[in-house]
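User: Structure please.
Assistant: Input sequence and predicted structure:
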Amino acid sequence: MAETTPSSNSGLLELMHIIERLKTTKRAGWVRLGAQAPESISDHMYRMAMLAMLSEKDADLDISKCVMLALVHDFAEAEVGDITPHDGVSREEKHRRESSAIEKFTTELLPPQSIPSQRLKSLWLEYEEGQTREAKFVKDLVGLPF
């Protein structure tokens, strides 16, 4: 088990406070459409994780990894918000902002060489790059009209 220090514990606590925003930030698309009870970013991430877990996909797919990818795919939005095409932010700029948020989480708030830090960064990058079967599957789930 990795050794924890007061500074790493305070960083983890700060990260938990930042993550709290995912529960209270409503998804921008639903707000813009005037949905009566728009889901939060956290609601969305949880739903995607449950869809992944309950999937009947073939045995070649690592469902546990799919669940983790679903849980981290919008993680950076805790820091940058739910940026949509309607915001006039380029894809490149959105990616830059989200990358900066993940970098902050994994180098400033978590010990950079820790397993949790490396896991978070690796999973987020895998989803963003969309090259693995698992990342492609989760991206397909995210695209479902819920």
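The helical segments are 6-24, 28-32, 41-53, 63-72, 77-80, 91-109, 115-129, 133-142.
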